[in-house]
Design goal:
With about 150 residues, this protein is an alpha/beta fold. It has one domain: Glycogen Phosphorylase B (Rossmann fold, 3-Layer(aba) Sandwich). The chain has seven helices and five strands, in the order βαβααβαβααβα. It has a five-stranded parallel beta sheet with strand order 2-1-3-4-5, sandwiched between helices. Strand 3, helix 4 and strand 4 form a beta-alpha-beta unit. It is globular, with a radius of gyration of 14 Å. The two termini are about 20 Å apart. The relative contact order is 0.19.
Length: about 150
């Protein structure tokens, strides 16, 4: 494993913590895709990960390098509701989504990838800042580990 950033992988792997990753409903720029793809890959090195693509959108090119590893780790919106997905995850991260609010309300540790869209929404919908904090994509693993007592 060669990390994209010059940092040591998170050790040890926290196999008993399932992290749900909500793939965004809206298109990401190439830079955002790369950053989120790297964050997902780093999450996979530290936690058990389940990807939840938006029901009306297929995962994009950022998942291509991870495709073989993700086959068994992708939630199917046809056989599992969004609430069933968030209920089995101890933590849920992703871009802006009402599923993040649902996960927070149901007791999961939640974080939204902090980007320009997040900052705009927080300015008029502060529940995202309080219940679902914004975390840069590159910091998601360390943020989760610190809140789960694994740092």
């Amino acid at each position: 494993y060669t990390p994209h950033r010059l940092q040591a992988p998170v050790e040890p792997r926290v196999r008993d913590v399932e992290v749900g990753v909500l793939w965004p409903a809206y298109p990401l720029s190439e830079t955002e895709q790369a950053a989120f793809g790297e964050a997902v890959e780093e999450l996979m090195s530290a936690f058990t990960v389940q990807i939840r693509p938006h029901p009306r959108r297929r995962p994009n090119a950022a998942l291509e390098p991870l495709r073989r590893r993700l086959v068994e780790m992708t939630s199917d919106s046809g056989s599992e509701t969004g609430l069933e997905f968030v209920d089995r995850c101890q933590a849920v991260v992703g871009y802006l989504s009402t599923s993040l609010l649902e996960a927070a309300a149901r007791g999961a540790l939640t974080a939204c990838v902090a980007d320009g869209r997040f900052e705009q929404v927080v300015s008029y919908h502060p529940v995202f800042g309080r219940s679902v904090p914004g975390v840069p994509a590159a910091d998601i693993v360390s943020w989760l580990a610190s809140r789960l007592g694994e740092s």
